[in-house]
Amino acid sequence: MTISFWRYSHLVLAISSSLFLLIASITGVILAFEPIIEKAQPYQPSGASELTIAELLSNIDGKYEEVLSISSDKNGFITASVIGKNGSENFYIDPFTGEKIGELKEKAAIFNFATSLHRSLFLGTIGRFFIGLASFLLFLMATSGVALILRRQGGIKQFFNKLVKTSFLHDYHTILGRLALIPLIVISLSGTYLSLLRFSIIPEENISHAVDYDAIEASPKISTADFKVFNQNTLENFRSIEFPFSDDVEDYFLLKLKKKEVIVNQFTGEALSEQPYPFVALFSELAMMLHTGQGTILWSVVLGLASLTLPFFIYSGFAITLKRRAAKIKNPYPKDQCKYVILVGSEGGTTRKYAKLLHDQLLAAKQTSYLTDMNKLSHFKKMEHLVVITATYGQGEAPSNADKFKKLFIKDFRPKNDFTFSVVGFGSLAYPEFCKFAFDTDDLLRKHPLSTQLLEVHTVNNQSFEAFSEWVNPWAEKVGLTIELPKPDNLIARKKTQKFTVVNRAISSNVEDNTALIELKQEGNKKFESGDLLAIYPENSTRERLYSLGKSKDGNLLLSVKKHELGLCSTLLHELKIGDSLEGFLLENKAFHFPKKAKRTIMISNGTGIAPFLGMINRNGRAHEIHLYWGGRTGNSFDIYKETIEGALADNQLTTFKPAYSRCCDKIYVQSLIEKDAPFITETLKENGTIMICGSITMQKGVTQVLDQICQKHNNQSLSFYQNRKQIKLDCY
């Protein structure tokens, strides 16, 4: 089923039941305190559950004029109904002494009020019906919520994986949903069951004893302390016992245990009838305990906390929906009259806001622009320029408003004119399939005979406005426009940063390289791996600059940074001295972590792209087979990495190192080395080895082109085949 089905189901269920669930949740929180308060009373002496029923009866014998019954409540407290000096009384007793230890307390008024409101809304039968229906709808909402989380996380195995943050309401709607899932399912199903029981849809079964009263014997008479059934059962298995009304042989003890009832001859102790409780009765008791928390403090606390999440779910759910619908599309021109067409794929609404920014600026520039969802792909008769701005959902899947795009494109898209296209992908580097749907869309568009790619796929990490602007400017220049996007204040805010201190640094002896190797120690203990990213904010900017990092032997961050003439962050990093500090934050980049299962890994990089590989090699304690190909300008470019590489080769942490220098010696690029070692590359991929590539986009294009040729020539497979098998890992910039 599609994400749209589950999302709209989730929404419709919430709308139809929110009022009843809000009332039930608030009263549920109040009622969760009742069993906690009751259980905390001092009416259960230690070890009482180990007493036998015979011992209990002996302890109470002679203490009162007449004992009518003794019971154990949900908390294990023993109560007695007796006739004494003050007439008929009911109170708590000490099972060891039979003495009175407390009065039975009436239910507090607030709990009476909350119970009536919780069960029937003070509307009697009709109120019980609506509350029962709301319980069932809550179960359906939990089910649809699970489907949505599975889609977002990419499957059952990733269900409880760390969540990639998007917005507070959206994130905690998911986080609390996962934590409260089991309690909410238990609450909803038990509530539904109790409602069905109340309306006799599930019939109750009563126990019926068959006793031959004429055959009851009064001898041999023995003491109740010697009754077998009383000695075989402890108070842990005890519900209640009703005493005989008289000394007539037909009167008996009615003993109720956890799973059965026993009629006991009051003279001989013989079990006259023994009947187990029907399954419905036992299950109803379990449902009541699970729904109310009676007799257990821990489960009552869980129920209270789960009930407390429902008002948040209702508020955050509606807020997310309103936000998703907030970016309304206004198209002043018909679709078949527009030169520019913008297709948007958005899951939470943020990507749509960026698409709308571009659309509004095109309209302001007196251009005919049409903005619509990817699922509404049409022919667009006068389209000259197509822009696709899309997020990626879950593990590389299409957002809900773009899941039909591929089918529509293949079957129905028949434009009459040539057109250019450009794809912008929104996503988070914390997901392994970063912007995968954008790349898939770009591949699809490139195959159309009338299309011309205007710009390479541009990716935007964590909704960065500046990253989006970096694409808009060259795109506008290509189509002959000048566009300056106004930055909305509420589009994105800076993330919380932490402090990093320089503990070591080295500068390349090659002046042209202008490269530094910097080691940073973090303030705090946030876990990271080689291949993760360090994000740094330039001054007066909300767009972070990302640097691939390695992990040193001391557990510090290793960065290799090339200084750019107008680069704010690269200049800042180059000017840092040992002891200086800067602010930034760590981003997990699982897609570029070292493969633990592959026996052989080939690493390909140029320039500063070597940094994460230095960290991976440093921590290769298993002598995993690693082969490093690296491209630089001259032999001097290698100086700042030489000590680490030579040490790794000596310690067998690195198997081979092959450099390529583009400005000296043979003047070759790293892809030339790859082409030369084609048989070795082929063998590695066949044996499930991994190839990791880190460096410039230019290097990536050259290397992947050569790899694709090698794969097709020697393995009869395209490079994408190995990418889909996670044997090719890319982190280029």
Description:
- It is elongated and about 115 Å long.
- Helix 4 runs antiparallel to helix 5 (168-198) and helix 5 crosses helix 8.
- The protein has an eight-stranded antiparallel beta sheet, with no helix packed on it. A seven-stranded antiparallel beta sheet has the order 18-17-21-15-16-20-19.
- It starts with a helix and ends with a strand.
- The protein has four domains: 3-39 and 109-204 and 288-322; 217-281; 327-478, Flavodoxin domain (Rossmann fold, 3-Layer(aba) Sandwich), CATH 3.40.50; 498-732, Nucleotide-binding domain of ferredoxin-NADP reductase (FNR) module (Rossmann fold, 3-Layer(aba) Sandwich).
- The chain is an alpha/beta fold and 733 residues long.
- It is built from 19 helices and 26 strands.
